Amino acid sequence: MPTEIEHKYLVKNDEFVARTTSKVHIRQGYLSRDKHRTVRVRIAGCQAFVTIKGVGNGLSRPEFEYEIPLPDGEQLLSMCLDFVIDKTRHIVVDHGNRWEVDVYHGRLQGLMTAELEVPDEDYTYPLPDFVGTEVTGQARYSNAALSQLERITDTI
Known about the structure:
By secondary structure, the chain is mainly beta. It is 8% helix and 52% strand. The chain has two helices and nine strands; from the N terminus they run βββββαββββα. It has helices at residues 70-77, 143-146; strands at residues 3-11, 20-34, 37-44, 47-54, 60-68, 81-94, 97-104, 112-117, 131-134. The protein has an eight-stranded antiparallel barrel. Strand 2 (20-34) and strand 3 form a beta hairpin. It is globular and about 40 Å long.
């Protein structure tokens, strides 16, 4: 079973911008956000995906992601609950680790998060200078929770 193990942090400055190796515009929404699973639709650039995530155990949780045709992704995105998240994802490599830094737009303007997927729960890594407070496991910083907010000040 595919498993995701990741750490999530708030970003404290824009130092990552100069170190970005690539970036992509992302729109994503949720078809399901119950306590047992989330079903996400994401359009990243010119690709679309459906992702199903299960209940976590520590830092790990099952994750299944499938590429779908872009027109299907657009139609599914229009069926999502509440709001569609709009963000730009920057890829930054630091000490051999691939960080995904999300800069949110629209109603979530001002929020920036950094995620690092790791191979196992005991993996250790240095933090880049742009990384601030760890929010791993804080439900209010999950994209599923953020997709329910009318504005960022509702949660932070």
